[in-house]
């Protein structure tokens, strides 16, 4: 299956500051990919590189098997930017007509059916819509383009919980119906947990973790037991995070095999546990192997 996104040593620099560096990932098509990281980690930069809005400073990037930014690529990628931008003075219907003029593969029936199902008044101007309704309009514009890849940059950050749930429900329904690949950036790990089956974690402008969610959760564990120095753990247990009291240690580790030491109580992680462990990792606790885990 064609990779939806491939990058090799990808980097982007603004002046003297690297917004993204040493990014090497290989994401297969057919996934809803969650991209998570703190502010300034490089999420938006990576998405703009994938959409051809920026040129890399170093390295290479391929999207849907080709270079981003040319005309053929733009026709295959839908993009919904931060704040789900719409034109305040245009009506819902005028947005759809503009979409049809700008996109040769425009699916008018899909757009009109979705607007009707959402109960949006075609004659209402975008300035009169709620934040949730504007987000749904922006999503409709992205879907009606009939892209192979839909890129969404923090689309629900400004929405209330109900509007967020409705947006994500619509996204998941469309993904299943149209067999889209999706690249979704969000600060809200709970939203990613409900929607994503592939995860990329960016910290300090670098990819710290990438892979299918099920495999990442299967290879990461919480170990709780008597206080122990991390260097005493087996070499195949990479320590992501460590916490200690006077008598007890708690580690989150990535392990190649089963945990056999009977001194440890082994616990399963949620996606939120996993993400937070890597976000808290200012630097690798141990350097026996790199922090990046790429599961193909």
TrEMBL record:
InterPro entries: AAA+_ATPase (IPR003593), ABC_transporter-like_ATP-bd (IPR003439), ABC_Transporter_VariousFunc (IPR051782), P-loop_NTPase (IPR027417). SUPFAM superfamilies: P-loop containing nucleoside triphosphate hydrolases. It comes from the Bacteria. Residues 5-229 form the ABC transporter domain. Keywords: ATP-binding, Nucleotide-binding, Transport. One of its GO terms (molecular function) is ATP binding. This is ABC-2 type transport system ATP-binding protein. It comes from Nonomuraea rubra.
């Amino acid at each position: 299956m064609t990779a939806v996104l491939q990058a090799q040593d990808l980097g982007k620099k603004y002046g003297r500051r690297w917004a993204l560096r040493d990014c090497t990932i290989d994401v297969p098509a057919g996934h809803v990919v969650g991209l998570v990281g703190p502010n300034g980690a490089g999420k938006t930069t990576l998405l703009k590189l994938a959409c051809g809005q920026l040129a890399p400073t170093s390295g290479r990037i391929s999207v849907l098997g080709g270079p981003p930014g040319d005309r053929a690529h733009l026709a295959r990628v839908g993009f919904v930017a931060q704040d789900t931008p719409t034109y305040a003075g245009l009506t819902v219907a005028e947005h759809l007509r503009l979409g049809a003029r700008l996109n040769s593969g425009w699916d008018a029936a899909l757009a009109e059916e979705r607007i009707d199902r959402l109960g949006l008044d075609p004659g209402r101007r975008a300035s009169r819509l709620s934040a949730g309704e504007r987000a749904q309009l922006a999503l409709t514009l992205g879907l009606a383009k009939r892209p192979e890849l839909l890129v969404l940059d923090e689309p629900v950050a400004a929405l209330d919980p109900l509007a967020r749930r409705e947006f994500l429900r619509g996204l998941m329904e469309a993904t299943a119906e149209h067999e889209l690949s999706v690249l979704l950036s969000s600060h809200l790990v709970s939203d990613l947990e409900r929607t994503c089956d592939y995860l990329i974690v960016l910290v300090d402008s670098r990819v710290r973790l990438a892979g299918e969610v099920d495999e990442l959760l299967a290879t990461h564990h919480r170990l709780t037991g008597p206080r122990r120095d991390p260097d005493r753990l087996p070499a195949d247990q990479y320590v992501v995070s460590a916490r200690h009291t006077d008598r007890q240690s708690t580690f989150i580790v990535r392990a190649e095999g089963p945990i056999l030491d009977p001194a440890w109580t082994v616990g399963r992680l949620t996606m939120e546990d996993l993400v937070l462990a890597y976000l808290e990792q200012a630097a690798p606790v141990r350097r026996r192997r790199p922090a990046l885990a790429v599961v193909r």
